[in-house]
Amino acid sequence: LRSKLPDVGTSIFSVMTQLAQEHGAINLAQGFPDYDPPQALLAALAQHVTTPGHQQYAPMPGLPRLREAISQKTAHVYGVAAPDPATEITVTSGATEALYAVLAAVVHPGDEVLVLEPAYDLYGPAIRLQGGVPVYVPLTLPEFRPDWDRVKAALTPRTRLIMLNTPNNPTGAVLTPQDLTTLAELLRDTTTLVLSDEVYEHMVFDGQPHHSVLQNPELRERAFVLSSFGKTYHATGWKVGYCVAPPALTTELRRVHQFVTFSVSTPTQHALADVLPDATLFETLPAFYQQKRDLFRELLAPTGFRLLPVEGAYFQVANFSALSPGTDDVTFARRLTQETGVAVVPISAFYHDGQDHSLVRFCFAKQESTLRAAAQRLQQGL
Ligand code: PMP
Ligand code: GLN
């Protein structure tokens, strides 16, 4: 068989989770919470999953009542004109399907797609599956800021799309309004589109708001903006997300979405439509995760890891070079999992060429007891 992705192994998240299970390690590798969704959401699902009439295909773009709730939420949170549920909002099988469908919809063979690295692991392979050419622009260490001069230098007439991710997985960095203004200026006379992966939109810390591409009118006109209910409602296993995009872009996205999954599970959409109008559920998330971030940083302080700043999302990146000089990050992550009993992800997994900066990623979307148990192992085992 001639593989379409010959150089791609199994995703690092599956690999580290399996290794964690084999060695009884605490899994701070794969990003998922070890607590449940809000009770109101679980109760709503229990109700809809037993409601006759809610068990068949949902409309292809998503349940109208869920799209309406997304529209109102978007206007409320970002202070923007409400996106039209009929023409600008599409419910997808997680942000993952939205990413794939957007790329399939707009990338022609030979088109270039700019990716700021380190980047979420599916971006590069999903671009290549469309015959696209990923063009990688490094984020600048140590704070993983975008260097817009380098982005400018990488833009060509073939640049079909630039992919943004704010708050960022794995780095925890966020884009500022100035970043968005600068990007809008760079793209002004081009036909380059924007895909903005904002699945961690409700996890931004230290009193800062999340700055959405939807708030920049120039970018919004050319952008697909993605979110994920899995992140917002501690329900990564539900795999429901959505995309907000102008009508012409939404039309193209739906051309693909209808032939990838057609539609998303009906009872879960009803349950989400029930709870989404209650803003307290997501408005309390920044404080909820900031507390976890602060606790975890405090717990790691005595361990010898050098902690990078975390402005958003639920990941802590840490430099281990003082603990294990000369060790590459993959070896270090494996040892930490096997010998210390705490599973992490090596940051090289987020670089297409496996660049090693002696960094690993911890997920702190865990109960306090889990974080304390992990820290205890780290303090004793290092
Ligand atoms: N983008 C980023 C940056 C993510 O971290 C994730 C979650 N792993 C996704 C997309 C996928 O989201 P979902 O689980 O809704 O498919
Ligand atoms: N987004 C999650 C992470 O970064 C994992 C998603 C997955 O397992 N594919 O860890």
From TrEMBL:
GO terms for molecular function: kynurenine-oxoglutarate transaminase activity; pyridoxal phosphate binding. Its cofactor is pyridoxal 5'-phosphate. Residues 26-378 form the Aminotransferase class I/classII large domain. GO terms for cellular component: cytoplasm. Coiled coil: none annotated. It comes from the Bacteria. CDD domains: AAT_like (cd00609). Keywords: Aminotransferase, Pyridoxal phosphate, Transferase. Belongs to the class-I pyridoxal-phosphate-dependent aminotransferase family. This is Aminotransferase class I/II-fold pyridoxal phosphate-dependent enzyme.
